[in-house]
Structures are given as C-alpha cells and as structure tokens.
Design brief:
Elements lengths: L1 H4 L3 H9 L2 H14 L4 H25 L3 H8 L3 H38 L3 H18 L3 H25 L3 H7 L9 H11 L2 H14 L6 H33 L9 H5 L3 H4 L3 H32 L8 H20 L3 H26 L3 H4 L6 H25 L4
Helix pairs in contact: 2-11, 2-12, 3-10, 3-12, 3-17, 4-10, 4-11, 4-12, 4-19, 5-6, 5-15, 5-17, 6-7, 6-15, 6-16, 6-17, 7-15, 7-16, 8-12, 8-15, 10-17, 10-19, 11-15, 15-16, 17-19
C-alpha cells in the first residue's frame, strides 16, 4: 500500500503517452496488420520502462534532467554545444510533431461530435492549450481529462476481453516480424509509446515527488515500482486497443475518421461507444497538448542553462513556439488520421538520438557516482537504441529506394 500511495510521476508519463496518437496508431496497426505488430507494443513498453527508469534515477541521484547532465558531462565546448543543439532541435521538432498529433486528435474527436470542421477545432484547441498554459490553471482540468482517458482505456481492455481474440494468433503476434509496408506503423507504435519528451518530464517530476532530503535508496525503489507499474498498465491499454481493432475490423479495412475508430467499442457499449470514444480521444489530446509544450520548455531550459521559471519570457517563448507549430501543422493537415500516424513516426525516428544521449549521461560517474548504469541497464538500453535506429533505417531505405 505504501508503494501504491507513492505512485505519481510514472502515471504522469503514462497519461502523456496514452494520447490520440496511441489510440489512432494502435487502431490502424490492428486494422491493417491484425495481431502481427503486437511485438512492437511489447517492445515499446519494455523500452519505455528501461529508459524512464534511467531518467528517474538521474533526477533522484543527480537532481538534474538529461539536458543538464549533458551540459555538465561533456567538457569540450564545441562537442558540448553540438550535442546540446541536437537535443534542443530534436525536442523542438519532435514536440512540434507530437503536438500536431495531440491537437489533431482533439480536433477530429470534436469534429465527429459537432460537425464543425476539424481545422477550425485545431485552431481552437491550440488557443485553449496556450491559454491554460499562460494562466497556469490547468492542473484541475488535467485531472478531469485523465479520468476520461482512464475510462476510455478501461472500455478498451474490457472490449478486448469480450472480443475473445484467438490466443494462438495473439501469441504469434508477439514474435518479431516486419510485414510488407509496416515500417511506418512500427516506428509510429514505438514513437507513440517511447516519447522522447517524457524522459525530460520524468526527471523533473521525480524531484518534486521525492525531495533531496528523502532516503535515496527508498526513493529509487519507489520510483522504479511507480514506473514499472504505471508504464506496464499503459502498455496493456495499447495492446488492448490493437487486439480490439484486429478482432473487430477486417484486415485492410479503411480507417479514415474518429467515428469509424469508435465502432470497435460497440460490442461493449453499443450506441454509447461513439460518445465515450470521442470524449476520451478529446481528453487524451488536450492532456498531451498541455504536457508536451511544457516538457519542451523544461528540456530547452536545462540544455541552455536557463532557470525553469514558468513566468520567464524565454520559458514561455519555447512552449508558445511548440503550441503554434503544432496548431499550424494540425490546421493545414489534409488527412487527420495520417497526420497523427506520421507525427508518431517522426518521434520514433528522433528517439534513437535522444536515447543515445541519455545512455551517455547515465554512464558518467562524475554525475551519478556509484549509481551509473550497470551491464544489464546498458545492454537493454543499447538494444532499444539499435532496434529503433534499425527500423528507422529500414524505413528510409525503402522510402528512398536503396534496396
């Protein structure tokens, strides 16, 4: 019970990645490839636990995030400046893409419920997110939104059980394979779960949850339990969405609207499925639309040595730029469902670089002392980096006709 009461930062990470991108990408993966990409969900969940544990450990032991750790660990100025510039660019572009997916997801949910074009809702959503961030009055709104996301997630898990998916087919889906034309979807599944900005967000959240005066060993134990349980549950939800979609839709079925995606909940909820799905999708988008720009601002402030002051004009300028870019991408997007999938794929391509920087920081004794990565953590981290990089290279190779 004590560990359950200590949970918090891990749940924040899970709430951040269970957004419109997760729901849309997992639905598309199940509808197009059946159970064949379940292994990508399992890999993504394990990868997230591994990397977020490193981020939490860095925050608790060194009381800093990945960007600050890189700034103090790389001694050569040219190399340090180049590394930090890459981190800032990766977070800026990655979060802009992720923000576009968040706003698009919210917009298509509201469009299906109201009939007002998604592009107008995208602009309204961007303004709403910016307004809440500017006023700083979004914490209670976040709690309500997260509750709606949880309700939708429970519905998906229940529907997956009702669907009665073939156990043999599900187990086969856990064996890694890459069906034809599935590279973008695999990268998107990884990119929507192993979210680069969550690495920066988690390091800050654990410092607020467990102060420097708390016993370090106890804090680390609780943080690991929190991350493992929370992210594991998030992975279960993603898998349930994919299994539900694979069981409900025929393979290759066109998924081009939120209303079509909502149909997969009809075995459990009947006519009410559409309304719960749209409410959950909208809530998931708004929640992530608030956290993504904030995380980008924290990461940039850490990389450039700025104070993480919510009232600072530089801090506000960063999150404002992310909100503006995401809103423009969402408002100008042609196919909202494809826009979400490509946003997640872009994040997946950036992930290997951000993860490699984190791995470097986690092996610096001058930052972590005796709490640096051990052989197991380094091995798991290397597998994550190499796998995500390999899938990305495979996709680019086919896209550019290299083979």
């Amino acid at each position: 019970m004590r560990r359950l009461r200590a949970m918090g930062p891990g749940l924040l990470v899970t709430a951040a990645f269970i957004g419109p991108g997760t729901v849309t990408t997992a639905t598309l993966a199940g509808a197009k490839f059946g159970f064949a990409l379940l292994w990508a969900v399992a890999f993504s969940t394990l990868a997230t636990i591994v990397l977020q544990e490193m981020s939490a450990r860095l925050g608790l032991v060194a009381r800093m995030g990945p960007a600050e750790a890189l700034r103090v660990s790389i001694r050569r100025r040219p190399l340090r400046m180049a590394a930090l510039a890459l981190v800032v660019l990766a977070i800026a572009f990655g979060n802009a893409a992720f923000q576009a997916g968040n706003i698009t997801g919210t917009a298509i949910g509201l469009e299906a419920a109201s009939g007002v074009p998604a592009r107008l809702w995208a602009i309204g959503t961007g303004l709403a997110a910016a307004g809440m961030l500017a006023l700083g009055r979004y914490r209670w709104i976040e709690r309500v939104l997260i509750a709606l996301v949880v309700l939708m997630s429970v519905a998906f898990v229940a529907t997956a059980v009702i669907a009665g998916a073939n156990a043999t087919a599900v187990l086969r889906g856990l064996v890694p394979r890459i069906p034809t034309d599935s590279e973008i979807t695999i990268i998107a599944l990884i990119g929507t779960t192993v979210v680069p900005y969550n690495l920066f967000l988690h390091a800050s959240a654990v410092q607020a949850k467990w102060p420097a005066t708390a016993p370090l060993d106890e804090s680390l134990t609780q943080a690991r339990f929190d991350a493992g349980m929370s992210i594991g549950l998030g992975g279960l939800v993603t898998a349930a969405i994919l299994v539900t979609s694979a069981s409900f839709f025929r393979i290759g079925a066109p998924i081009d609207s939120a209303s079509v995606m909502a149909e997969q909940l009809s075995p459990l909820l009947g006519p009410s499925a559409k309304y719960l799905f749209l409410a959950g999708l909208t809530a998931a988008g708004l929640t992530s639309a608030i956290t993504a720009p904030l995380a980008a601002a924290y990461a940039t402030a850490g990389a450039l040595g700025w104070p993480a002051d919510l009232k600072s004009w530089r801090f506000r300028a960063v999150w404002s730029a992310v909100v503006l870019a995401g809103t423009l991408f969402a408002a100008l997007g042609r196919n909202p469902i494809e826009a979400i999938r490509w946003a997640q794929a872009f994040n997946g391509l950036l992930l290997p670089m951000v993860a490699a920087f984190l791995m470097y920081a986690m092996n610096q004794p001058r930052i972590l002392g005796g709490r640096v990565n051990g052989p197991l953590a380094n091995t798991l981290g290397a597998v994550v980096v190499l796998t995500t990089a390999g899938v990305g290279i495979l996709h680019m190779g086919r896209a550019f006709g290299w083979y």
